[in-house]
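It is worth pausing here to work through a concrete case rather than discussing structure prediction in the abstract. The textbook approach is simple: state the sequence, then state the predicted structure, then interpret. We follow exactly that order.
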Amino acid sequence: MEQVPKESKGTILIVDDEMGPRESLRMILKPHYEVYTAADGKEALNTLRQTKIDVVTLDLKMPGLSGLDVLREIRKYHADVEVVIITAYGSPQNVKEANRFGARSFICKPFNSMELINYIHQLFERRSYSLKAKNQSKYNALMTRE
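Step two, the predicted structure:
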């Protein structure tokens, strides 16, 4: 099993209305990433407006804005943010809807801590590669015009 290097950089926003799962995720991920938390969808969207976030872990069943509502808003304004749904409510309909709005994957509670850390690390690597390719593509297009 791959170990996540201690010097990993990146920001994660954990969105869960229940303090137990939210704090568990924060404690698991904090040694590797800069971690922000939100107790509801409105707080999550405010954090996304104010802070550069790379990855969001998102609970589905929350009062007020549901996780799917938050996911839709993230896609409108933060298309490059990776979103992972972490929920105890992984119905086929929820999975289909979340995939439609670009959630990277579904992780069911309870989860294995090491598997979660490794998965998040892989997301950061994929995101980094994707952003580099996107920037290279822009650079190549610019150079072709000149």
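Step three, interpretation. The chain is about 50% helix and 15% strand. Residues 1-8 have pLDDT under 50 and may be disordered.
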